[in-house]
């Protein structure tokens, strides 16, 4: 295994995709433009960098770049004169950056005929920048390969998408996602819940900021446990513990997702005999395991339907606290 950080990441996270690129490079089948689409942390940039190394490497082994030669090292360090990077300047990629890129496109490679351009966070191009990019993607000049990297291809101009080869990256395997969560010092008992909430490492990191995830998880567990006891203190939990955590639409959605997930845990324990390490709310397993004995299947399914209705209520912009309180009332009524 190479000690090159990008090569290792690409081979570990996306072996099929990166080997496909290595084969295309070896067979000279590479297209002029690719759109690499997928969640953050799935290895898109690593694949683009590794494929670029394969194009320039002089010491390839079994079609793979060595990751160690002068060419590979300069690409890894961002110092190769024929490999150009563009990323957001502040919040966006501006038209001036694309114009600079176009000027580079018109030049021959400094050390050869080939030039490679890697555009990071391509979805953050301004409208003018995207239109400017479209013009020279339509008519590539010279021996040029472009990699556009995005977390949301739906924000890319359809005309750009139609002129690139779109590669959709699968989410990371559970093993690799767990490894990444371990790096950000996540409690192993929280792995399952985080993976149910998101497939994006960046989103997982954001959830962990300022201890938001732990506070939200604790609040939802308290709310659930009061409901299990048919205790109307569940309302107090909404006002005192949950609402202070609500800062934007995303935080609302994550709270709803957590609430829904704890009831799905109930369903999994009741019908599928899930054990502690298989559910999302690992730390609340004893309460869940006790309550599934008391609740009927009909009531449990009804409660999950009530929770699912929260998303419809959010879509019509009802007051979020009212949504949670009315949902709590409905669930408590169901449990009578």
Automatic annotation (TrEMBL):
Pfam families reported in the protein's UniProt record: DNA_pol3_delta2
Domain of life: Bacteria
GO molecular function, one term: DNA-directed DNA polymerase activity
Sorted UniProt keywords: Nucleotidyltransferase, Transferase
Keyword Membrane: no
SUPFAM superfamilies membership: P-loop containing nucleoside triphosphate hydrolases (SSF52540)
Assigned EC number: 2.7.7.7
NCBIfam families given in the database record: holB, PRK08058.1
Protein name, UniProt field: DNA polymerase III subunit delta
């Amino acid at each position: 295994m190479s000690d090159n950080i990008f090569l290792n990441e690409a081979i570990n996270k996306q072996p099929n995709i990166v080997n496909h690129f290595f084969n295309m490079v070896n067979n000279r089948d590479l297209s002029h433009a690719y759109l690499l689409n997928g969640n953050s942390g799935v290895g898109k940039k690593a694949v683009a960098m590794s494929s670029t190394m394969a194009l320039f490497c002089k010491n390839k082994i079994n079609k793979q770049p060595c990751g160690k030669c002068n060419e590979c090292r300069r690409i890894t360090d961002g110092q190769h004169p024929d490999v150009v990077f563009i990323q957001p300047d502040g919040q966006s990629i501006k038209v001036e950056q694309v114009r600079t890129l176009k000027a580079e496109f018109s030049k021959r490679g400094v050390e050869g005929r080939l030039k490679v351009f890697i555009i990071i966070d391509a979805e953050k191009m301004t409208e003018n920048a995207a239109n400017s990019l479209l013009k020279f993607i339509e008519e590539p000049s010279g021996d040029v390969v472009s990699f556009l990297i995005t977390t949301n291809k739906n924000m890319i101009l359809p005309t750009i998408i139609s002129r690139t080869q779109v590669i959709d990256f699968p989410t990371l395997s559970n093993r690799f996602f767990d490894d990444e969560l371990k790096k950000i010092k996540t409690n192993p008992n929280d792995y399952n819940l985080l993976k149910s909430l998101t497939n994006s490492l960046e989103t997982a990191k954001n959830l962990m900021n300022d201890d938001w995830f732990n506070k939200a998880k604790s609040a939802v567990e308290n709310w659930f446990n009061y409901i299990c006891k048919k205790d109307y203190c569940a309302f107090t939990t909404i006002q005192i513990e949950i609402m202070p955590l609500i800062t934007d639409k995303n935080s609302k959605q994550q709270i709803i997702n957590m609430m829904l997930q704890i009831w799905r845990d109930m369903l999994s324990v009741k019908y599928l005999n899930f054990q502690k390490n298989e559910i999302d709310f690992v730390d609340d397993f004893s309460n869940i395991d006790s309550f599934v004995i008391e609740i009927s299947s009909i009531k449990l399914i009804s409660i999950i339907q009530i929770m699912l209705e929260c998303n419809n209520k959010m879509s019509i912009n009802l007051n979020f606290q009212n949504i949670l309180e009315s949902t709590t009332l409905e669930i408590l009524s169901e449990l009578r």
